[in-house]
Amino acid sequence: MENVFIMDHPLIQHKISMLRNKNTGTNEFRKLIEEIAVLMGYEALRDLPLEDVEVETPIETCMSPMIAGKKLAVVPVLRAGLGMVNGITTLVPSAKIGHIGLYRDPETHEPHEYYCKLPDPIDQRLIVVTDPMLATGGSAVDAVRMIKEHGGKNIKCMFVIAAPEGLESLHKEHPDVQIYVGHLDRELNDHAYICPGLGDAGDRIFGTI
């Protein structure tokens, strides 16, 4: 699918396998999510625009490339998406951070909105939406829709793991959005959980199992 990027880097795959292990504790899980976000962010941000600026080195003055424009906005989907934010800001410390709050109804599996706060002006920034898991795709579809309604145009989404159903849904609804996935899992089960998955990412990041 156009604008869909499935990561194949050995380090990403290795760390995702560690995430899947039910015996991986909260502290290690949290660190792994952050490390994976760094590795995925390196790939996702390879097309950041550059401009030449004058820099004085100890030897001479030269023109050297630096990131251009209003730079970056990281928008985690609460709450699990927060676990990936530090990984992105490690790469781009000047990034602004917004938040989108969505929760999934346990019966219908439909997303419900409860919060949206985005950097202003959002239309001039590259926006990276973070969420460790893309299951049904409902939350991601709604998050991107909310950003677009606020004027966001240049949007990328990053997920550690995804189900084919969610990936297809997000791509169908927002074909203009670049989607980066650490690993494409097999399927959703009857409870809309990703299989083989890694459990509930939010619970495992924040130790609320």
From TrEMBL:
Quote the EC number.
2.4.2.9
Fetch the InterPro entries from UniProt: PRTase-like, PRTase_dom, Upp_B, UPRT, UPRTase/APRTase
What enzyme class is recorded for this protein?
Answer: transferase
Which keywords describe this protein according to UniProt? Allosteric enzyme, Glycosyltransferase, GTP-binding, Magnesium, Nucleotide-binding, Transferase
The pathway is: Pyrimidine metabolism; UMP biosynthesis via salvage pathway; UMP from uracil: step 1/1
Q: Where does 5-phospho-alpha-D-ribose 1-diphosphate bind?
A: 79, 104, 131-139, 200
Q: Which cofactor does it need?
A: Mg(2+)
* Catalyses which reaction(s): UMP + diphosphate = 5-phospho-alpha-D-ribose 1-diphosphate + uracil
Question: In what way is its activity controlled?
Answer: Allosterically activated by GTP.
Say yes or no: keyword Transmembrane helix present.
Answer: no
Residue numbers binding uracil? 194, 199-201
Domain annotation Phosphoribosyltransferase: ranges: 7-208
Q: Which family does it belong to?
A: Belongs to the UPRTase family.
Role description: Catalyzes the conversion of uracil and 5-phospho-alpha-D-ribose 1-diphosphate (PRPP) to UMP and diphosphate.
Q: What's this protein's name?
A: Uracil phosphoribosyltransferase
Q: Which organism is it from?
A: Blautia intestinihominis
Higher taxonomy: Bacteria, Bacillati, Bacillota, Clostridia, Lachnospirales
Q: Which gene encodes it?
A: upp
